Amino acid sequence: MKKIALVTGGTRGIGAGISKALRENGYLVAANYHKDHEAAEKYHNETGIPVFSWDVSDYESCQKGIEKVYEELGGTVDVLVNNARITRDSMLHKMDPAAWNIVISTNLTSVFNMCRLIVPTMRDKKFGRIINISSVNGVKGQVGQANYSAAKAGTLGFTKALAQESANKGITVNAIAPGYISTDMTEVIRDDIKEKIIAGIPMGKFGTVEEIANTVLFLANDKSSFVTGITLNVNGGQYF
Ligand code: NDP
After folding, report:
1. Structural domains in the chain?
2. Ligand 1 center to 184 CA (angstroms)
3. What value, to the nearest 5°, has the Cα angle with vertex 150 and ends 154 and 120?
4. Is 33 one of the catalytic residues?
């Protein structure tokens, strides 16, 4: 029987690549998103992957969304990829409390919400793969991103704790910390700034969505059963 994978923020950017790679590798995939219905519909039409809209920052919304996934896919989740995120960048001395709260709830509380609702079923079936997408900026911090860096660093602590709690239940919990990845977001970076960033990456390039998706496939694999509680830095050789 096919394993079921659920990817939050799975219809755009890196998440879209992760959903597609999982499907191409034999998983039944559900892709969550929030408000961009047009992009989600386009993605569904192109890939055939079922898409589900809910707000990962809200516990009840997650509960309802996950129930719909179970109904439509006919089983509970084996592989959970927590990938959804937003940014609200500004220097701390100008940061609105609302910008702090929404980034923490969308990027960190969401990881609690999704795991809290899915881990019990994984414990029952004594199998699970949880992959939390953090960021290079959660590892090293970033100017203008105190909220985002805090959420992404928080995800790493959460990953290590849940990995220990789940270790004797067949559930692995790992994080990936991508460096700069070519997406719509990096497309809009000014060329001179892009050059400066690339100069700091030993491999001399941005990563690709496929390079992150392949790392997810590795961690999701049944055979990666002794790997848990780690952060895989996928960043072209940057060292902090
Ligand atoms: P995008 O901004 O391109 O996409 C984010 C996705 O998250 C969208 O599908 C969006 O839904 C969804 N989302 C946002 N808020 C919510 C919410 N409240 N509920 C449900 N879904 C939501 O992200 P990227 O592809 O750039 O990044 C993917 C992951 O990789 C993130 O965790 C990010 O932090 C990490 N990362 C990315 C890097 C990069 O270079 N791009 C570098 C390092 C880490 P909708 O489509 O409806 O808006």
Report:
1. 4-233 (3.40.50.720)
2. 11
3. 25
4. no
Range 182-206 average pLDDT: 92
- Beta strands 79-82 and 128-133 are parallel
Q: Specify the DSSP class assigned to residue 107.
A: I
Please determine, for residue 185, whether its predicted confidence score (pLDDT) is greater than 80: no
57-100 pLDDT, tens digit per residue, is: 999 999 999 999 999 999 999 999 999 999 999 999 999 999 99
Q: Directed axis angle between helix 146-166 and helix 97-104, to 10°? A: 30
Q: Please provide the average confidence, as pLDDT, over all residues in the chain.
A: 97
Q: Any idea of the CA torsion for 30, 210, 169, 116, to the nearest 10 degrees?
A: -50
Q: What pLDDT, on a 0 to 100 scale, did the predictor assign at position 176?
A: 98
Q: Which of 27, 33, 148, 180 is catalytic?
A: 148
Query: Can you tell me which residue has the tokens 């960048």?
Result: 89
How many angstroms separate the CA atoms of 32 and 81, rounded?
10
Pocket-forming residues, ligand 1, beta carbon under 6 Å: 8-9, 11-15, 32-36, 39, 55-57, 83-86, 106, 133, 135-136, 178, 180-181, 183, 185-186
Decide: pTM greater than 0.85. Answer: yes
Q: What residue's CA is closest to ligand 1, atom 3?
A: 13
